[in-house]
User: Which sequence fits this backbone?
């Protein structure tokens, strides 16, 4: 890419043959084109016959007006396009959100930024306490992200802690419970005096994912964080059905080849908590068995990053930390996916 300064230097030095062919000699036509700027040239080059000619075009005649203008335009420096820094959008609940579940707890999404240099990716933590896939949808929170998503962005979707139960009986509907099931079941209801067709967890995830894919973003469906796996005194963690639903949704959307990835975040976070042991983990669930203190939220974020690095998404490639630096006595190692997990 040649700047004008470089251009005139090379012209005065030697008139390199490629420049000679394009005839970038500073005649009145080229001077006028340079003054009129690259916008005119973009328009004219695209459709020379329909772009109306400015008055200076009378300076361009050799061998014809059109060919001299096109030749002069080819001498303009191409504007440098700096690649856009992608945003990583986080959609989730209090375990991920700014301020966590309040009372001194914190969401893991607040720590994700530290694994991506600012020159490589921004993190927008749009997770919100108390939300499920259903209420995040109803309140337009997926939409609010979609309004800002740009091609090349990433959207991480992680729900489950508020999605259990059922909208029925209607008197007990908390506005968060998804329609039970893994398929296209629907649960018509009236919530807060408004009719609502409640959908299943996979349907909410797939609808949101398809919206982001259509906007040129890629999607990571991430399994929910564990409740304190040392709660009983002995370590115990079993992936819940929302873990399976996230994986299922990735599979049904077409997996990595469709731009959709699964991170078994719950498994990675549980592995780290197993390694940390009961004293540290108990002390970092200060309020209840769901919400983490800042230290553990950071570990949970790092567990997600290890899951990314162990997977195949391009987002893992943007992480500043080497996999070998992440694996170790706290986070553990890559979790080998069973044969069916499309990570
Ligand atoms: C959070 O703190 C407030 C104020 O101290 C208290 O009233 C509330 O019960 C606490 N919530 C939980 C879930 O601990
Ligand atoms: C993050 O995204 C939300 C939309 O989900 C938007 O309202 C908010 O302004 C964004 N925050 C920043 C810092 O860009
Ligand atoms: C719901 O799923 C079932 C089973 O896959 C399928 O037969 C049916 O056509 C689907 N219904 C709708 C409305 O998509
Ligand atoms: C629902 O409608 C009833 C009757 O009009 C009203 O008393 C109640 O406050 C409404 N509830 C909500 C959540 O808007
Ligand atoms: C932990 O496991 C051991 C060995 O299975 C058992 O004896 C003990 O009762 C368990 N403790 C708790 C608190 O469940
Ligand atoms: C692989 O994992 C998925 C999701 O957790 C599960 O449904 C499936 O049964 C597992 N397959 C094997 C062979 O373990
Ligand atoms: C990556 O390195 C940065 C800077 O040292 C650190 O803040 C961050 O926690 C690391 N990420 C992980 C996942 O270890």
Assistant:
């Amino acid at each position: 890419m040649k700047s004008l300064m470089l251009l005139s230097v090379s012209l005065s030095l030697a008139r390199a043959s490629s420049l000679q062919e394009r005839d970038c000699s500073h005649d009145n036509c080229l001077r006028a084109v340079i003054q009129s700027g690259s916008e005119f040239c973009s328009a004219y080059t695209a459709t020379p016959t329909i772009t109306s000619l400015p008055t200076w075009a009378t300076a361009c005649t050799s061998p014809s007006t059109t060919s001299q203008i096109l030749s002069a335009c080819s001498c303009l420096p191409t504007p440098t396009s700096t690649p856009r820094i992608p945003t990583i959008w986080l959609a989730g609940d209090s375990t991920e959100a700014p301020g966590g579940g309040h009372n001194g707890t914190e969401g893991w999404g607040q720590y994700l930024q530290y694994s991506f240099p600012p020159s490589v990716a921004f993190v927008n933590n749009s997770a919100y306490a108390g939300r499920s896939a259903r209420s995040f949808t109803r309140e337009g929170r997926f939409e609010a992200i979609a309004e800002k998503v740009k091609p090349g962005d990433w959207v991480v979707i992680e729900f489950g802690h508020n999605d259990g139960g059922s909208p029925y009986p209607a008197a007990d509907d908390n506005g968060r419970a998804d329609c039970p099931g893994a398929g296209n079941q629907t649960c018509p209801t009236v919530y807060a005096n408004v009719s609502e067709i409640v959908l299943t967890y996979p349907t909410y995830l797939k609808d949101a994912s398809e919206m982001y894919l259509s906007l040129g973003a890629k999607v990571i469906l991430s399994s929910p964080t564990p409740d304190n796996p040392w709660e009983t005194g002995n370590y115990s963690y079993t992936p819940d059905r929302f873990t399976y639903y996230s994986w299922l949704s990735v599979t049904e959307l077409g997996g990595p080849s469709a731009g959709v990835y699964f991170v078994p975040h719950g498994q990675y976070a549980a592995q780290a908590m197993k390694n940390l042991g009961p004293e540290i983990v108990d002390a970092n669930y200060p309020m209840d068995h769901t919400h983490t203190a800042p230290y553990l939220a950071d570990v949970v974020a790092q567990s997600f990053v290890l899951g990314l690095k162990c997977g195949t998404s391009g987002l893992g490639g943007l992480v500043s930390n080497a996999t070998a630096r992440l694996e170790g006595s706290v986070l553990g190692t890559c979790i080998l996916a069973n044969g069916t997990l499309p990570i």
Summary: The radius of gyration is 28 Å. The pocket of 2-acetamido-2-deoxy-beta-D-glucopyranose (ligand 3) is lined by residues 183-184 (CB under 6 Å).
